[in-house]
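Q: Now give one record:
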Amino acid sequence: MRRRIIHVITPGDHFSPLTGSAIPTVVHGLAGAAARAGAPRPFVVVDRSTWHPRYDSADVIEYIGARGPDRKARYADALRGRIGMPRSAIAAYYRPIADAVRAQPPSVVLAHNAPILVWLLRDTPHRVVLYAHNDLLRTYSRPEAGRMLRSAAAIICVSESLAARTRDHLPEALRGRVHVVANGVDTTQFAPGGDHRTGHLRVMFMGRVIPDKGADVLLRAVAQLDDADLEVMIVGRPGFAADAPLSDHERQLRALADSSVAQVRFQTFVPRAELPALLRTADVFVVPSRWPEPWALTVGEALATGLPVIASRIGGIPEAVGDAGILVPPDDPAALAGALRELINDRARRAALGLAARARAEARDWSWSWRQLDAVLDAI
């Protein structure tokens, strides 16, 4: 069906290859796949002040953003919601976006991580779909979730794990509107490379370097291996600023690295375009998250690169890994050390997992993800 699609990304997020931000990555992947399938070129609503260059996969609708609510205002909003009042602070934050969308011809509006936008556009001819990348309704009571999302044409979640949590927050009348559209991966951009052997087996972590992501769990696991021939690379920062001062958590990681016999290197934030080549220098990829990530895009990118993956058995991560990697309990350095030891000592096992990884990624690229989304939109 030839439908007009408008993606709305979170305010202030950059629709740019300079970042690895999850939602713009997903929108770019879906937009490119839609074009390859012959669908009309989509639109994306973007704050005028955000970074250039922008992805060229969608036409940009710009708006002038408002100041976001501070912590006190967000807390007051949550209280208002509990007593049946609108969340006025977040509504003011999203109103410039809603105004920009109102000015557009009737469209399917994919409101990424924005329940408030469903409510703000409730009286328009647009069909508004909440596209959930996170557990968005955890601060909502069921009655409030019902009021906010009553007009939603559908509620899309990026994993079955997230869909189950989302349904739990919804009144029964809305649970049937929840659908799963799993994220894909760019198997052209992320692909196996040539021989990079340096004599050391390189284990890589890539992502936001915050406690939830568990880089410290990896370093504690490596310490248990006591292997001087092992090289560990920690890639990323808490945000997008490569030269920002080190956080307390980053200082903790460096202290752990100093006490390890393994060679530990820290690579600061790098632009997204540089990630494929960097991934190709790894032998094993580790996703040691200790929180229930709805989906981990880095898992798909590592699989597409043909890397054996070890990841936490939590949230939507097992859905991303499937049977092409090794799952371990979260926040368990001993279990992670055991999985690493298995791969360090068994090169054939690493090679077999790498082949399975690439095969899984090829079967689950962005075109596969777009077909899921297209089927949901056909049904609304």
